[in-house]
Amino acid sequence: MPTVFFYGSHDWVGQAGGEEIVRRIGGRVATRIYVVPNATHNFHIDNPEILLMHATRHFVADAYLAFVFWTVLTSLGLCIWYVPLLHMGISGYEVALFADMAPVLLGIPALRRLLRRHRGISAALSLAGIAAYAAARPERRLLGVAVGTAGAMLALASALYEDRVAGSGRLDRAIQAWEAGLLLSVALRMFFQTNNPVWPTMNAANGGWNKTGVALALLALADVVTRRSDEQAEARAAKRADLPASASAQRRAAWMPAGLGFGALLFALHSLYSDSAIVGRWAWDGYPATGPAPVPWGGLVLTALAAGFSAGHRVELATGMLWWGVASAGACALTLVPGWAGFAGGLVLAAYVASVARSILHAVARSPPGRTFLVGVMWYNVLVLAHVWVVAYEFVPGGPLLRERTWVVMLATMLTLYAGVRAARASLVARPAGARRTAVVPAGPRSDRRRARALGWTAVVLGWGAMALRLPAATRTPVPFHAPERLITAAIWTVHFDLDNDMWLAENRIIDAVRDLQPDVMGFLESDTERIIMGQRDWTQRVSEELGYYVDYGPSPRKHTWGCAMISKFPIVNSTHHLLPSPVGELACAIHATLDVHGRPVDVIISHNGQEENPLDRRLQTTELARIMRESQNPFIFTGYVVTKPHAENYKILYDQGRIHDIDPTDSDRWCQYIGYRGLKRVGYARVSRGTITDTEIQVGKFAVPLPGEDISAWKPSYKRVDEAHYAPEYHFPKVFRGKGVRGHFYHVFKEPRYFD
Fold first, then answer.
1. What CA–CA distance (Å, rounded) separates 736 from 517?
2. Any catalytic annotation for residue 608?
3. Residue-wise pLDDT tens digits, 619-642
4. What count of Cα atoms within 13 Å lies in the side-chain half-sphere of residue 738?
5. Which of 177, 222, 254, 472 is the most buried (most CB within 10 A)?
6. Which residues lie below 8 Å from residue 205, measured CB to CB, with a gap of 6+?
7. What is the pLDDT of residues 668-721, one digit of tens each?
8. Is 556 helix (H, G, I), strand (E, B) or coil?
9. Active-site annotation holder among 592, 598, 608, 661
10. Cross-strand pairs, 521
């Protein structure tokens, strides 16, 4: 029968007897001790309502600090990525990745005792990660995030170890708060179009709520450091649990597989489920849309996580091999199959990973802290690096071993997750002779589970509310800018993963530039941000929703490219994602789309070729692009990153073999980005400076589309330049970029647009 011992904080009856009983029978019976603050032996008279009130307040505070944990953890990779991105190579700052190994210090008894006595120390350190936004210099912000990550990981590890006393229920409450923090983080990011408003890469100018986040964190920290005698008494009980417990009360877990399972659990939650859009983008495969859009179907990801967490107390079912097999099938589908089937596999995997979180964390709590967290966090870091290596293989040691092998990373994750689950099952589930298996560790008080479920499912409701609010903008029909004139304006911009030169998220400024430029079609290169080092976010959602565009995210993150995306005011009839030949260097990508432009099909290519160091790759990629364009019978616009000098070999392959015209063959000051066309009447061409968003300019071309049925295949372009007054105002490029321009964007190179007869 479940048993709870209640004592008043000023009770004349000592707690030693109750604590001894908890130790003896806690492994077989749901047993715990609760101390009512400000009460004597007659606690039910002195303070009858304080039990629920204090427990709820403490849980909400812990859940918010868990939200801080997920905020800091998901921002660390993004901040680390900034420095090599800026310097185009390994910088040394990557060592900050290992700040998450701070829990290894729990192997030092004196430090472990200090963190137990003063639980607020590690919580206060974690706040440095969200307060780092106040530092203007990127390096100092990265340092703050590294300190915050160390504090957040220490807080988690010390809570698992401190609260592990059998039968007290404290460990389950700590785990439930950690799970609720993830759900709250995902739900909040759904409101902010996949950004976390408390990230140190956010500020007041780009939509951050940093001050609010820090203020709430300080309130939660105050709750932790001022907790009253009920928590103090339970902490004393937890300290006594350092002494060897009886075999019936607590069985040790195998520390090595428990640590590996913890690393795999943390990696799976971070890499796949820290944002609601990740799974949908993994399943994305172009138009016609065969998979779920992030809005509203991202709500299903949050729902699957909450369902898995809610079922976590069913240890026998969650740790069973059959459930792992089902989840493995889901992982296989997510990794290999596009569309709804892959998305469904991702949902199954989400439910599984969430359901085993409690068991794995219990196993970790039953293992020696120093070496267990050393193995766990190191394995997490190995998986994070492997998750990057599959794309960045050209610039990292041993990269070719993982080249384009996401399936290897997924396989390693699932196998080590299973190792952790089996270790947890061995320590948490007993099978007496002739009896069925039963949980050694009870599920904890129902009141705690109800409280955790209430907060978790509240986050789910909030997430679906965010989807409902965003759905009208996400599904509205875009309107082209100059339909009466039958114009199409096409642009290309390499945006460096939506991270500006000062390590702030740049989509606000990108949106402003696009709004002023008024392109009907625009390609973005280096756009795939659904990776740990880019923050696991989808910035194209915000651009498309706020400006009213169709969006093609481009090749899925599982396709191992740095990304190329497209927005369009015209309906996207079809789009194909090409992985261009890349035998030596990183995998190059292209989108080949057919648009319904004023009633006539027009093809568009958005492409990103390889690096200067790989001439073979660039030649093969250019040849493949030329083949795609040559075989199309539709009018064509090419916008891409070619990496060649004008009129050099690759230039000739692209334009001559692709049977397209250069928008301005007299422009000799080009190297990366180029625009070409066929079957359209060119109006003008402009180059707009980058500002401080990236290191690459914007190029834009304006074209008139022939009437349906009109044949201009034999028409040859004239390269005679004319004044802007030659065209009506509707044909002009925006005047806002003339002179000094706006927000650092202005017409450069020619100082003004060029118009052609």
1. 9
2. yes
3. 999 999 999 999 999 999 999 999
4. 9
5. 177
6. 504, 508
7. 999 999 999 999 999 999 999 999 988 899 999 999 999 888 877 777 888 899
8. coil
9. 608
10. 490, 568
